Each structure stands twice: as structure tokens, then as C-alpha cells.
Amino acid sequence: MAKKRVLCFGDSLTWGFDPVNRVRFDEDNRWPRVMGKILGDDYEIIEEGQNGRTIATDDPSEGEKNGLKYIGPCLETHTPLDIVIIMLGSNDCKRKFSYSSMDIAGEMQIMLEKIKAYNEFRCQNSFKIILVSPPLISDAIKDSWLGDSFGYENACKVSSELAGWYEKLAGMYGTSFVDASKYVKASDADGCHLDPDDQIKLGQTLAKFITENEIA
Q1: Quick check: 134 and 86 in contact, CB under 8 A?
Q2: How far is 203 from 183, CA to CA, in rounded Å?
Q3: pLDDT 10s digits, 133-161
Q4: H-state helical runs in the chain
Q5: How far apart are CA 5 and CA 179, in angstroms?
Q6: Thinking of the domain 4-212, which architecture would CATH place it in?
Q7: Is residue 152 within a helix (H) or strand (E), and if so which, with residue range?
């Protein structure tokens, strides 16, 4: 029996960025791997996290970070798939983009339409989609190395509004939805990334969600 293939598409929160040492966590402390261990040998986990990735915005100062441009080749590369988990939006809160939460939701809507179209016309609707709203950017970002980039007050406000928009999008497009902020919080070290305990907790949460909802 073929393994169920799960694509985890996200940014540094999915890549496993350590907010203290600013390196990558090992496999035991990255949520996709934690999720995979819980789901067991019948599942194959594909990690597609990229530091700085946006939903649909080019970022000339950081390189090729536009998720919308990469999602098509990514899906094609990893097909066949059974589950696609998307967790993006934190980097779109950066000050240089000046986005409202509605703007970011508009980006995510385009992303979902692209993924849904690929699923329908290229994969016969063979995979399920789980849309995850990211952990909230916290006040701790103000005095961290990320504070200037994110602009603190507006980033916190916009971040806090994303879950409501994403839940509406999930309803519109018939995807599953998980609000990560109900289970984990950003590290006090930088107000954006997850400490090991919360990486593990997010992996546990998503594994439980997949199992309990019989996704794939």
C-alpha cells in the first residue's frame, strides 16, 4: 500500500527556524517531522518551508520568496499528494508591504484558487487541503532583531486578524482550517518564531486534526 503523502508548504515557521540561535531545529523539533512521527509509517512528510516566504509578493531585498510563483512547480514536483498543508502570512505582515489583513487574505484567496485548480484539472481532486493561520506575532517582536522589519504595532494587529479571514476562505473553498494561535504562541525571543515546545505542540495538533477528521 502506497504511503499517504503530505506536503507542508510554508515559511520559516515550517522550515523550523530557531528564534534563539537563528539556525534550523533538528528533525525532533520541527512540526512537520513531529506530525509525521505521530501519523506513523503510512505517511510520508514533505517539508517545503522557506525562510521569508510570502504568499504572493515579490521581495527584492530578500530574494525569490514569492510562494504563488513556486506553488505550481512545487505541486508538480511532489505529485501524487494526499494532503497539502499551507501556513503562510507572517512575512506579509512586514512593514515594507503595508498590507492590511484583508490584503493578505486576498493573496491567500489567489493561492487557494491556484492550488484548487491544479488539484481539479491535473489531479482529479486527489488531495485534501488544510489551511492554517499562523501563530500571532506578539509584542515581543518590538525589541527583537525583527522589530524594525515588521514595524511592531501594525504587524501585531494585522496578524491577529488573519485567522478570521482564513476561516472564511476555508469555508468558501471547501478546505479544512486550523487556527494555530489557539494552540501555540510566538517565542519571547523574537515575537514571531516558535520555541521547540511549540513546534512539537503544533505537530501534535495537526497530527490529531488529520486523524480525528479522517483527512486522506
Answers
A1: no
A2: 10
A3: 999 999 999 999 999 999 888 999 999 99
A4: 12-15, 31-39, 67-78, 101-123, 147-150, 153-173, 196-212
A5: 22
A6: 3-Layer(aba) Sandwich (3.40)
A7: none
